[in-house]
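Exercise: predict the structure of this protein bound to adenosine-5'-triphosphate.
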Amino acid sequence: MEQIDWELFKRVVEFRLMKKHSENSQKFVIPPEVSCVTKTLEKAGFKAYLVGGCVRDLLLARRPKDWDVTTNAKPEEIIALFSNTFYENNFGTVGVVNEETKDETLKVVEVTPFRLETTYSDNRRPDAVSWSDNVNDDLKRRDFTINAIALEITEGEGESFMGNIIDPFDGRSDLKRKIVKIAGDAHERLEEDALRLLRGVRIATELDFTIDSAAEKAIIANAELLKNISPERIRDEFVRIIMSDNPSKGIQMAQNMGILKFVVPELLEGIGVEQNKAHAFDVWTHLLETLKHAKKKEWPLEIRLAALFHDISKPETRRRNPKTGEWSFYGHEVVGARVTKNILTRLKFSREIIAKVTKLVRWHMFFSDTEQITLSAVRRMINNVGRENIWDLMNVRICDRIGTGRPKEDPYRLRKYKSMIEEALKDPISVGMLKINGARVMEVTKMPPGPKIGYILHALLEEVLEDPKQNTAQYLEERAQKLALLDEKTLKNMGEKGKEKKEEMQEEDVKEIRKKYWVQ
Ligand code: ATP
Ligand code: MG
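Solution:
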């Protein structure tokens, strides 16, 4: 028998221990607003851990969206330790408020006592909430392995800390493998709270992870449970998918797992609905491609939603022309606006968002052949969609075109269209811009109504166009009185000059705009 080399054995064990320790203990950058909360709890003799999404994000070197702390202190004990807190839910969460910070993500640090999981009988809320004195209990109730990691700050100062990781579900290896995996039994956990089906897709989309196969099977099998979830909670996850870096992939993933049907069933109608030759894609793919471009341009939520919904009623309105064999989609934007409004209302979006997205869908079909379009047609369009929405409508239109599979918006046409919009938006130069009006001219000059009043106003307009600083009530009133002394013929000439100046400047403006867009 060989002699055991105890010396070596000891060194191996020590090395292993050290390695294990160094794996669990690492450096983190944690803002003082957060470490101050855990320190305060610890100084009072409690345990305190960072937990959930913020630990996951720290381990991924992503910036956390919010910071959650879990502790063995009870809500009353937490409240007693901090000067500015609020307490308003059934889960024992105390918001510790930081008024000084400018960083939105640090304004409130949420502190929740270790929670013990109880039963769920309605697929959305635990029947009761009870506290535990063990952080592991709290981790067990969390949804995904990557969200069930706690971090205890051990030492450090400023923003740099050493922390100990508590990771009972080995979430870190799922972070490495980029997998969203349910902590515990997938079916059970989804049944408890069906929002987790959609959270899984949302988190996978945001992090660009895949959903592990047990979770996928369980999501597919339990898709219907989403019916029990409130529209507000569904909306929040849906919005996060739309605002992620790869929204079209997220929507596709939701569809693949059978849950899109319980979020926006109207979208499914477009699957396999062929269009005419100018379109490379079916309606469904076209909508996803349009959304993809809206994300690529980093457009805000409203434009992304309009991109996703703009052709939502094409399937419903599709007819085949018996002579040409071509498809038509007459009125799809009108029906589509109505359907969009229904979807957004059902999901409890704000009135502003509903109004804007609906308008963008309603007017997305504008005629844009710049060879033929007139300025008054552009004016009508602006009137329909609203001045404040016209550029967003243009942006939806560009996404639409890219989403059709055409490589590029015709650059000249696009620039021409933009220049026409700007032209139409420009307020006309007129005597209405003056800080005096006809009635006031009559008052200060004591003149009766008649053509002379108009001449005076136009003469004043010329002066103001020459030197905009003169556009004050006081100056113009004094000038009007002096002008009133002139004979009618001289005044008429001056008025004519004012009109010419106005025309000239308007033409100049148009030239400037066209130059800006490099168009004729
Ligand atoms: P982010 O903050 O980026 O939105 P998050 O994972 O932190 O992502 P939160 O809604 O802030 O999401 O939730 C914080 C943590 O609470 C999660 O990481 C998870 O541990 C737990 N959690 C949230 N919602 C659920 C749920 N429905 N079921 C179980 N655990 C949940
Ligand atoms: Mg969070």
